[in-house]
Design brief:
Helix content: 55-70%
Number of strands: 2
Order of helices and strands: EEHHHHH
Shape: flat
Number of helices: 5
Mean pLDDT: 80
Strand content: under 5%
Distance between the termini: 49 Å
Largest sheet: 2 strands, antiparallel
Length: about 130
């Protein structure tokens, strides 16, 4: 192994570096990426495992669920990443009419998120719109 005497001098050593020195420590962003990968992987396993018995409506609902969850799980996501989720929620509401209230709420939350940019007003606090989207 190589050891460091100073930032510019490297010497050989028999002692391996502790794991903390092998790279930067994990951050909450790394946890978000890992959680998102696990969530998408689990959805993929469900699709592969039950693809013969899943209806088209179930596939659309599962896709909408994944698309709604991804912006919440990944760090640094903004309201613009909900576009596809908003569209697929509307499609899911046609397949499963009981999901219509969720599709309407998602559209209202998107509208509330864009209101400050469109009309220079905030009709609903953005924190409330994000909480409703959960």
């Amino acid at each position: 192994m190589l050891g460091r005497v100073s930032p510019t001098h490297v010497v050989a050593t028999a002692n391996p570096a502790p794991p903390a020195e092998l790279g930067p420590p994990p951050t909450s962003a790394d946890a978000g990426f890992g959680l998102t990968a696990a969530f998408i992987g689990a959805a993929g396993v469900v699709v592969l495992r039950y693809r013969r018995v899943m209806s088209r409506a179930s596939m659309v609902v599962l896709g909408a669920t994944v698309l709604v969850a991804i912006p919440f799980l990944l760090p640094g996501m903004h309201e613009r990443y909900f576009y596809l989720a908003d569209a697929l929620l509307i499609v899911a509401a046609f397949y499963r009419p009981r999901l219509a209230p969720f599709a309407v709420l998602a559209q209202l939350c998107s509208l509330a998120a864009y209101a400050p940019f469109l009309w220079n007003s905030e009709p609903v606090p953005l924190g409330l719109a994000a909480a409703v989207r959960l």
